[in-house]
Amino acid sequence: MIYKIYPLLVVMLLSFGKDSNNTPETKKTAIKTIAKVEKLTVEAKIESVYNTLNSNNFKLPELKTFSEALKGFYLLKERGIIQKNILTLIDFSLSSNAKRLWVIDLTTNTILFNSLVAHGRNTGEEFASAFSNSNSSFKSSLGFYATGEIYRGKHGASLRLDGLENGVNDNARERGVVMHGADYVSESFIRGNKRLGRSQGCPAIPMELTDEIIQVIKDKSCLYIYHPSRSFAMEEKLIS
Q: 63 phi and psi, to 5 degrees?
């Protein structure tokens, strides 16, 4: 995995440990340097993946948003929390009238879907601005999720989601936050109401895409909901 230190860096670190002339301060500096090089390597890898994405004639997500999503994907994959090379990215910094959901196959570096997606009714009107992990808040929750199983509910085929961040989205299953189709997630709804419809906190998607999307992303793939109000801090909040 790219998060693991490359052999050359390991040799560098060990060499500092064996040299008795190195002070603790020197060793700390060396470790910081290695960490910085490793971080730059990760950033370069992510930028390379982004630059080689097959857009499939869809608009690309922003690099910053994609970078945060891919960092989390790599960590979750390394820990065995997710199993598929599928990344679903939702960018709630964008207008709800924009197609702000992407499903990306990271094996082929191909965007499979780019779709409208709703946020919670108490999260905002056209733009998402308020988020919650609480029951009955009717707000969306940010952060990283693992997709679960498909079931049939009042919205038809729906996909359960497990929030992976303590205090951020870990109540998702208890709250009934799932991915499902909805009639109010459509271009026609936008034309009639000046904005997309809103859910009770679920990332609702167009009815005509529901079956295809949830079949692709079900069973332990990574879903990330981004908003600039929250900086990337998934690792420190990750459910163990």
A: -60, -45
